[in-house]
Amino acid sequence: MKIRNLILSALLLGAFVSAPAFAGPVIDWDPAYVYGPGASTTVALTGAELKGVGIVSMFDGPLGFLDANDPTKEYTFVFRGLIAQPTIISGIPAFTFYTTNYSGGIIELYEGSPRNSSFAPNPENAIVPSTFQDGTLLLSGTFTSFYTQTNNFTQSKSGNMEGTILWSGGTLLPLFNGGNGQPCPGLFTGGITWSTEPGVGIPGYVFRHDGKIDLNCPTPSAPSTWGQMKARYRD
Amino acid sequence: MKHVAIALSLAILSLVVPRTPSAQAAQLFIDYFGYDYESPNPNPGTFGEPGSVYNSLGPAPNLFAPLAPDTANNQYTYFFTNLAAANVQTFGSFIVIDYFPGGLFQVWEDAKLGGTFYDFGVNPPNATAPATFTDGTKFVEGSIDQFQVVLNLATGSGSFDANFTMTGGSQLSNVPANQRTGWTFAGTTANELNRPSGYDHQVDGQIFLNEPTPAQPKSWGAIKARYRQ
Q1: d(CA B128, CA B118)
Q2: What is the pTM of this model?
Q3: Which residues of A touch B150 (CB under 8 A)?
């Protein structure tokens, strides 16, 4: 009876057996910059939009065939449409934490030529975001979650932001399939700093983001037979 | 007499007057990403407990001037170590961990051909980590102070920052003596599904160097006038 239950459970899970997974970020950047009325180092304006632009510095995994350092090409991304929810303030006056969740939002990765983008101050302007969203749309997706975490006490004014991406479009979308015919979710993650030091901060942007995207694939699986399954659980 | 003494002291200090701190700039020095773990780790169920030592390692794919890497022929890896937890404070779901001074940050250069490719393995320290991250030539070494980790246990993510001072490595002479201090920050997350077993967080960070404090030439008269006020 126990064996039957185990087999049935496995069948409900797709009758698959685990196989090794790959690791590593598919997209890495240094940096991206964040702006918009929904961006704040402390309390975001509820309902306001958060946006950002970035330049890819490295690809790996299923995108490892792309060369981010190709002098004839530029890989850039934009995100926008993230709508600030009420900022959650916690802690004590000397150690105050600001957590802002965002709803909605999209992200797009482009391959363009020539290398024409730059983090021009005070976006939006003639360069931002237009030079980050030109060329071929390689990937696009929507955020299913997104938040920023800041504080009032770290010496280098640092925190982090993170979101989950549901990939849905672009010429390279098929490369993100996780083995079940569905794209693997993306984990958009990394540190942020709101230091305004020249060389770090840029006027008009709230955060510098050092981050990456990982593919959070469910553990890959391989087809198995009834016989193999029963033999496995007879052990 | 007092004014003369002050003026003479300033003369010894090379007759320079620093600009205001707000004019200070920073330049990107090293970009790194990897995973962190604690070793020793007296209580594997908690992070940052007294007696635990923070370690982080991974590739350092982007190294910036005045460093002179040869990325065509070498792989570069980083290693944070010797960071002993000093104090943990809890604020709701957030924890703030402060570490004792004396931490180390290193970048190692290892040949792609004939070298050993880095391997995280599982449950570090293990046979390949940190060994395959700390082989070859020590490219950069620096001290880490005021290392502080902030984690939100509810979201599983956070950040750290610290002061950095370059003290050694094959590239030391490439970095001017008055430009070896800086800082680092990173994001950390436990939400990556492919994190190797035994590592606590994924880490993605950068180190900046402070540019030298600029100085302006001043005459004896200007300096004396300044200190007569």
Answers
A1: 7
A2: 0.84
A3: 97, 149, 151, 154, 159
CA distances from B90 to A59, A151, B87, B110, B150 (A): 37, 14, 10, 41, 10
From the list B62, B159, B193, the residue facing A191 with the nearest CB is B159
Give the number of other CB atoms < 10 A from CB of residue B199. 25
Report residue B51: phi and psi, to 5°: 95, -15
Pick the residue with more confidence: B18 or A50? A50
Amino acid at A235: D
Looking at residues A132-151, what average pLDDT do you find? 98
For chain B positions 180-209, those within 8 Å of chain A (CB to CB) are 183-189, 191-196, 202, 204-206, 208
Closest by CA position to B63, among listed B160, B218, B171? B171
Give the integer Cα–Cα distance in Å for B76 and A101: 36
Which SS3 state, helix, strand or coil, does residue A115 take? coil
More confident residue, B90 or A16: B90
Give the whole-angstrom CA distance, residue B22 versus residue A201: 13
Whether the per-residue pLDDT at A9 is higher than 70: the answer is: no
Q: How confident is the model at residue A178 (pLDDT cuts 50, 70, 90)?
A: confident
Among B38, B58, B56, which residue's Cα sits nearest to residue B48?
A: B38
Single-letter amino acid code for the residue at A177: N
Q: How far apart are CA B10 and CA B6, in angstroms?
A: 6
Task: Decide if B69 touches A, using CB distance below 8 A.
Answer: no
CB contact under 8 Å between A92 and B33, yes or no, is: no
Q: Under an 8 A CB cutoff, do A160 and B158 touch?
A: yes
A221, HSE (Cβ side, Cα atoms, 13 Å): 13
Q: Name the helix (H) or strand (E) containing A35.
A: strand A25-35
Instruction: Please say if the pLDDT value at position B7 is more than 50.
Output: no
Instruction: Report the alpha-carbon distance of residue B67 to residue B28 in Å, rounded.
Output: 11
- The verdict on whether omega for the bond into residue B212 sits within 30 degrees of 0, i.e. cis, is no
C-alpha separations of B203 from A189, B56, B196, B200 in Å:
9, 8, 13, 10
Locate all alpha helices (DSSP H) within chain B, ordered by sequence: 2-12, 220-228
CB B211 within 8 A of CB B25: yes
CA proximity to B207, closest of B187, B183, B191: B183
Whose structure tokens read 């290693």?
B79
